[in-house]
Design goal:
mainly alpha; 6 helices
């Protein structure tokens, strides 16, 4: 994944918002009801924040942070679309599939967070 440097204060703030959104819970919490639909709830929150960031750049697709937002939306949307309406508790096979999908998201999010932290100047926060 390529580097990112904010071009101005607004893009720095957008990068920070994305970094914070990606810092939230991606794995199900202790209150998880055992359904895939519930498991992807945190991912839906990430998509909502990505929509807010995109909205701030309506008509200005040149902001570099949007490439990162777009990559997050692409990776996060796949498991959300697949699992969002699945309200049946998982069995062992479905749990393995769901875990694999969530693990892929977590891996991508870690890369995006690292790029944001380096480019935004808050890399020391990423080390925590």
């Amino acid at each position: 994944m390529e580097g990112w440097r904010p071009r101005d204060e607004a893009e720095s703030a957008a990068g920070w918002r994305l970094w914070l959104a990606l810092s939230g819970r991606l794995w199900p919490s202790d209150e998880w009801d055992g359904t895939p639909a519930s498991a992807v709830g945190g991912l839906r929150a990430v998509l909502a924040e990505c929509d807010v960031i995109r909205g701030a750049y309506a008509g200005d697709r040149s902001a570099a942070v949007l490439r990162l937002v777009d990559s997050v939306v692409f990776v996060v949307s796949l498991p959300v679309e697949l699992w969002r309406d699945d309200g049946l508790p998982v069995d062992a096979d479905r749990a393995a599939l769901l875990h694999g999908d969530l693990a892929g998201v977590v891996e991508h999010v870690a890369e995006v967070r690292a790029v944001l932290a380096r480019g935004g100047g808050w890399a020391e926060l990423e080390a925590r």
